[in-house]
Design a protein that fits this description.
This is DNA-binding protein. Pfam families: PIN_9. GO terms for molecular function: DNA binding. InterPro entries: PIN-like_dom_sf, PIN_9, PIN_dom. The protein is built from 6 helices and 6 strands; from the N terminus they run E-H-H-E-H-H-E-H-E-H-E-E. By secondary structure, it is α/β, with parallel strands linked by helices. It has one domain: 5'-nuclease (Rossmann fold), CATH 3.40.50.1010. A 6-stranded mixed sheet has the order 3-2-1-4-5-6, sandwiched between helices. A hairpin with a 3-residue loop joins strand 5 and strand 6. The longest helix has 14 residues. The chain starts with a strand and ends in a 6-residue tail after the last strand.
Length: 127
């Protein structure tokens, strides 16, 4: 199964020490995708994020993105994730509450960080 990773998903290992690839594989996901606008967003965070911790987490995220297939897209990251997920049938790993709602209403599977230590497939009622 395929999963798209949002910028905040790529930052989880640097922020919480969770091995997102191991966790995604535990949930049955084997193909990891990153949309080009997400890479642009995380590159900006690596340079401009307010705290040193966030910049470091973003830099770690950039390294992790190298393990993913880059999906070319344009526009804003959220819109690209929605469009790609609908087109490919991929799930989306994000912790962004608003994006989770948008994805859920479109029938897209959403994965999120639970209790800062494991990933789970979100239940629509959680949003």
């Amino acid at each position: 199964m395929k999963v798209l990773l949002d910028a905040n998903a790529l930052m989880v290992p640097g922020q919480f020490g969770v091995d997102v690839f191991e966790e995604l594989e535990r949930l049955g996901f084997r193909e990891f995708l990153v949309a080009r606008p997400v890479l642009i967003e995380i590159e900006a965070l690596a340079e401009l994020a307010g705290s040193r911790r966030d910049r470091t987490a973003a830099r770690i995220g950039l390294l992790l993105a190298e393990r993913c297939e880059i999906f070319e897209a344009s526009g804003r990251a959220d819109e690209a994730l929605i469009a790609i997920a609908e087109k490919t049938g991929a799930a989306v790993f994000t912790n962004d509450r608003e994006l989770k709602k948008k994805l859920s209403t479109r029938g897209v599977t959403v994965i999120h960080l639970r209790q800062r230590r494991r990933l789970e497939i979100a239940n629509r009622k959680e949003f």
